[in-house]
Amino acid sequence: MTVRRDWRDWSCDVSVVVSESADVELAEGIVRQVMDDVSRACSRFRADSELSMLASQLPGGAEVSELLARLVRSALDVATLTEGDVDPTLGIALRAVGYDRDLSELPTALPGEQIDPRVIVVTRRTAGWTRVMLEQWRLAVPADLALDLGATAKAIAVDLAAERVATRLGCSVLVNIGGDLKTSGAPVPGGWQVLVQDLPADPAQQVSVGAGAAIATSSTQKRTWAQGGYLRHHILDPRSGLPVEPVWRSVSVAAGDCLLANAYSTASIVRGHAAVAWLEGAGVSARLVDRAGRVITTGSWPVEVSQEQLVGVGDV
Fold first, then answer.
1. Per-residue pLDDT for the chain (316 aa), expressed as one digit of tens each?
2. What is the pTM of this model?
3. How many CB atoms within 10 Å of residue 104?
C-alpha cells in the first residue's frame, strides 16, 4: 500500500508517492524544498535567482554555488551526449518566441492555432553550449548568450528529490514533476504501475517501473502559448532558434535516472523522424507518439501490462 500527495508548481503537476509506513507530509516537504532550491539557483523567471543576479557578471566569469555549478555541468554533459540537440544556451531564443515569463502568465493559444515559422531567427555561427566555460565553481557565459536550464534542471530535481526522500525516510518512493519521474528505495511488489499518456485523447499505456528507475516524457502539446496569433511550444531547434516541427506529439524514455531519460526524450523531439534510428542505435527504451497518434517503440519498451494501481505522469 502507498500514500501520495499532489500539487501544482513550475506550471505542472507534481506528486510524491511513498510506502504506507512513511510520513507523506515529510516527503512532500522534501520535494518542495528541492524544487525551491533548484528554482533559487537557476530560474530565469525569478529576479532573485542566483543565475539572474549573476547575469551581468557572467561574461567575465563569476563564482557560483555548488548547486548551480552542478546544474550547469549536467546541462553541458547532456548537450555533449545529444550533440547539441539539447542546448542550455537558448534563453535569448526562448524570449524571442515569447517564452519570457512563467508559463502561467503567457497568453493561451486558441484551438486550431498553428505553429508559425515567421519569427525572428536567432542565427548562430557556433553552438552556444561549446562557448560556456565552467571550471570547478567558476562560470563564464558570453554576453550574447543566456542560459536556460529548464529541461535538465527539472530532471535533476526529480532525481535529487527521490534520493533524499528514500534516504531520509527509509521508504520506497516515486517522485513525479511534470512528466519526469524517478523511483528510489526498496522495490515495490509488482513494481510501480505508471500510466504513460500525454493528453487525455492520446494513446495510453500502463508500464511497470522498478526501483531506482526513471521515465521522462517530452511533449510538443503542452507548455504552449500564443504569440501574434500563432501557437508556440517550448522545445526549440538550437540551429534556428525556432520551435521544432512537431513530428512527435510526445516521446517517453526509460533510463536509470531522470537526467538521462530527459536528455533522450527532448533530443528525440528535436531530431524528428531521425530519432527512431538514433534511439535504436543507442539501445534506448522509448515510446514515440506521432501526430496521428501512432505509437513506435524502441529498445525494451514493453508492449502492455495489467491494469492495476495508476500513477499519472502525462503532464509535461
1. 899 999 999 988 999 999 988 999 999 999 999 999 999 999 988 999 999 999 999 999 999 999 999 999 999 999 999 999 999 999 887 776 656 556 565 556 554 545 454 444 445 546 899 999 999 999 999 999 999 998 899 999 999 999 999 999 999 999 999 999 999 999 999 999 999 998 888 999 999 999 999 999 998 777 654 555 566 556 888 887 777 888 999 999 999 999 999 999 999 999 999 999 999 999 999 999 999 999 999 999 987 544 444 455 443 3
2. 0.87
3. 8
Strand partners, 230: 227
Cβ burial 33-46 (10 Å sphere, 16+ → b, else e)? ebbeebbbbbbbbe
**Dist. CA 258–CA 158, nearest whole Å:** 7
| Cα 251 to Cα 315: distance, rounded to the nearest angstrom | 13
Q: Which three cell numbers stand for residue 83?
A: 550533440
CA-nearest of 89, 98, 207 to 151 is 89
SS3 label, residue 19:
strand
The answer to whether 305 and 193 have CB atoms below 8 angstroms apart is yes
